[in-house]
Amino acid sequence: MKFFFLILLFIISTISYAQKTVDVTTGNTSAMSPAFFNVVGGEPFVFAKFARLVEGSPYFREEWMKGNVILNGERQYAGVNLKLDLFDNEVHYQDQKGNEMIATAPIQKVVLFDSVTQQVFNFINSAYLQTNNRVNGWYQILSEGKVSLFKQIDKQMHETKPYGSATIEQSIITVFHYYVLYNGRFTEIKKIKELPEIFSDKKQDIAQYIKSKSLSGKTDDDFEMVINYFNGLK
After folding, report:
1. Using CA atoms, how far apart are residues 212 and 116, in angstroms rounded to an integer?
2. Residue of 21, 125, 6 lying closest to 65 (CA atoms)
3. Which of 13, 42, 56, 152 has the maximum number of C-beta atoms within 10 A of its C-beta?
4. pTM score, whole prediction
């Protein structure tokens, strides 16, 4: 049953639009192979940094998620238990004994599978984006084509000392940023109405599309629809 479930996840990932970034149907090596631990490397995770955390999480998801690790050159390891730390921009994985480790080798992409919702989440390390003007970290890939759309899930820590307490408490808030990569430029889009200005040759078409669909920019789908529309224009 577990083998069938993993195969199903791979099939889902190939038909997901965002999954165009990597073909998970070929070149996979089992994460339980000793080669994975030798190539990716790792050091034990120490929780001390977040020992006083009372709210929020540094991770994309707090729970372990099955996923693929893609190294430079598209070398892939499938079926890894992963956590993506978006505060320190680290990839955590479980070794063969179930210990939590932090990958020390450079990783190009991470593909995470949500077994409940059947969603696939693709992340790329900023070091592998074909542009210089970007903030270092991990970006979720929402759409790819002539124009690519990315989402930065920014984790910010705040420390406070409650009145009458000698202990400092930590909380992590999450802020979302959207970026488009077009003609080598990596541009942050704070409002969806800014998109027409990015595509000067199709400015009127994009503005009309946003208006006709009543897109507010409050969801990922709103931004994806505009980018997919532009990529479909001749």
Report:
1. 34
2. 6
3. 13
4. 0.81
Q: Could you tell me if 129 and 121 are in contact, meaning their C-beta atoms sit under 8 angstroms apart? A: no
Q: What is the pLDDT of residues 98-137, one digit of tens each?
A: 889 999 999 999 999 998 899 999 999 999 998 877 788 9
d(Cα 132, Cα 160) in Å, to the nearest integer?
Answer: 36
How far is Cα 102 from Cα 44, in angstroms, rounded to an integer? 6
Q: What's the gap between Cα 89 and its chain centre?
A: 10
Q: b/e per residue, 4-40, with b = 16+ CB within 10 A?
A: eebeebbeebeeeebbebbebeeebbebeeeebbeeb
pLDDT in tens, 163-205: 777 788 889 999 999 999 998 889 999 999 999 999 888 999 9
Going by C-alpha positions, the residue among 157, 95, 81, 153 that lies closest to residue 124 is 153
Helix, strand, coil percentages (3-state) for the chain, rounded to 5, are 30, 35, 35
Token output for 142: 């929402």
